[in-house]
From TrEMBL:
It catalyses: an S-substituted L-cysteine + H2O = a thiol + pyruvate + NH4(+). It is an enzyme of class 4 (lyase). It comes from Reyranella humidisoli. The gene is metC. This is Cystathionine beta-lyase. Its EC number is 4.4.1.8.
């Protein structure tokens, strides 16, 4: 049966939102609608279709897509959400609707690499200027960078690879006062551990490929919008560029969403245990995990976030060269080398902030490894890491 009540406790919201068994023959999960053509029963209804409502063509949405969008909007507290074909499509689809030639955008210096590439290439070609800022400057520092033509302030807390946590409240207040739209990549924390709309954001962006899908088997992006106005701008942009999410991927994302709360608690617990274990290793210089007191922006994390996930980084002590890092990574048994994260499997990759950071350059030669702690037993993960450090030490001392 379809729930007749509105629930607010996260685990229940994840379980019941976006379901309609009463209209699907009692079937618990929304079915997968494969559709391009959608028929109208009369000419009047065909010619008077309401924008953004109902179903008129497969590219603009199906009941499967709407079920996912409704469920994400419910857990995030959004007016509406928009499902698109990838996390990057969510980034670009959200941004592009709010900018035109001559506009200016402010972007945190620790933003997702492809988001920076979009700003530096496509938006630049369209005549939009982007300024990158130190993620730790706070609202007062951001105010000094605002211009009359600043239309978007783009945040990512914590930031990709280096995990600084911005003062979202302070920055959002400054941006909103100046009339700029505030967007945030909320993939790391998910709607369970951070509520962007409670902190002044207008748009929340997710690589649903990560924790929402949770099983490394589907590409997915989600744009959640605080208001009807924001939704119509973002949805129009996505429709204009032909962005949409495939029905089977929507089904997989909705399936993953049901268990996200359970999985995320495991990722958080194991991630913290591994992070603290890494702090004891002589090979490690610093662990960049927002829940640790010495991580940049930790106080912001404590004030604004309800928890942490399984993704963080650590730096190696000075003097360790690339061949030693390769000896460690090439021989890992459980930890795989893959660019994604958020699935059930643990991953570890070399990261290179020195190749893109501009507002706050990364120290030359500082080796950074990004890890995602999956659902494996934490003791087995420690063993795999310890054996990796042995290989690193042998190569370094050879």
């Amino acid at each position: 049966m379809t729930s007749k009540k509105t629930y607010t406790r996260p685990d229940t919201v994840l379980a019941v939102s976006g379901r309609d068994p009463d209209n699907n023959f009692g079937i618990v999960n929304p079915p997968v609608y494969h559709a391009s053509t959608i028929l109208s029963p009369t000419m009047d209804k065909f010619e008077n279709r309401i924008p953004f409502e109902g179903y008129g063509y497969g590219r603009n949405g199906t009941p499967t897509q709407k079920a996912l969008e409704d469920a994400v909007a419910a857990i995030e507290g959004a007016h509406r959400s928009i499902a698109v074909q990838s996390g990057l499509a969510a980034v670009t689809g959200a941004i592009v609707g709010f900018l035109k030639t001559g506009d200016h955008m402010l972007v945190t210096d620790n933003a997702y690499g492809p988001a920076r590439r979009f700003a530096n290439t496509t938006l630049k070609g369209f005549g939009v200027e982007t300024t990158y800022f130190d993620p730790m400057i706070g609202g007062e520092g951001l105010a000094k960078l605002m211009r009359p033509n600043t239309k978007v302030v783009y945040l990512e807390a914590p930031g990709s690879q280096t995990f600084e946590v911005q003062d979202v409240d302070g920055m959002a207040a400054v941006a909103k006062k100046a009339g700029a739209a505030v967007m945030i990549d909320n993939t790391w924390a998910t709607p369970l551990y951070f509520k962007p709309f409670d902190h002044g954001c207008d748009i929340s962006i997710h690589a649903g490929t990560k924790y929402i899908v949770g099983h490394s088997d589907a590409m997915m992006g989600i744009i959640s919008c605080a208001t009807r106005e924001m939704f119509e701008i973002a949805k129009t942009a996505c429709q204009s560029f032909g962005f949409h999410a495939a029905p089977d991927d929507c089904y997989l994302a909705l399936r993953g969403l049901r268990t996200m709360g359970v999985r995320l608690r495991h990722h958080e617990k194991s991630g913290l245990e591994i992070a603290n274990w890494l702090k004891t290793r002589p090979e490690v210089d610093k662990v960049l995990h927002p829940a640790l007191p010495d991580c940049p922006g930790h106080e912001n994390w404590k004030k604004q976030f309800k928890g942490s996930s399984g993704l963080f980084s650590f730096t190696l002590r000075d003097g360790i060269k690339r061949p030693a890092v390769a000896a460690m990574l090439d021989g890992m048994d459980i930890f795989g080398m893959g660019a994604s994260w958020g699935g059930y499997e643990s991953l570890m990759i070399p990261a290179h902030p020195d190749q893109y950071r501009t507002a706050v350059p990364w120290p030359e030669g500082k080796q950074l490894l990004r890890v995602h702690i999956g659902l494996e037993d934490v003791e087995d993960l420690k063993t795999d890491l310890a054996e990796g450090f042995e290989r690193l030490n042998r190569a370094h001392n050879a």
